[in-house]
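User: Please write out a complete single-protein record containing the residue sequence and its fold in token form, without commentary.

AI:
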Amino acid sequence: MSDHRFGELWAVQLGDREDTRLIVSGDFYHTLYGDNVLTAHVEPADMATTLTAFVVDIGNGQAAMIDRISTVAAARLKGKVGDLNDSQLQAVRGMIATIFGITV
């Protein structure tokens, strides 16, 4: 299993393409489903902000959409490509709490 943590950006292999995703799994989810990871989709920032208000700018013209989450097998994580800074992490935690009524 990949050594991934909440708030890290990872390259994810999805079929014949590789996407960047933000890890949003919490400890509870890891305990139950250790072979899967919850990830937020990353899109160009202008598109992401058009689609939802729950976005975090991750730089390079991209943003993670915190309400667009999917499960990815941990084996598909190919390599860490970045981390969120403290203010971004706080923003993600706040959005997750608002959307799903849970804390991470």
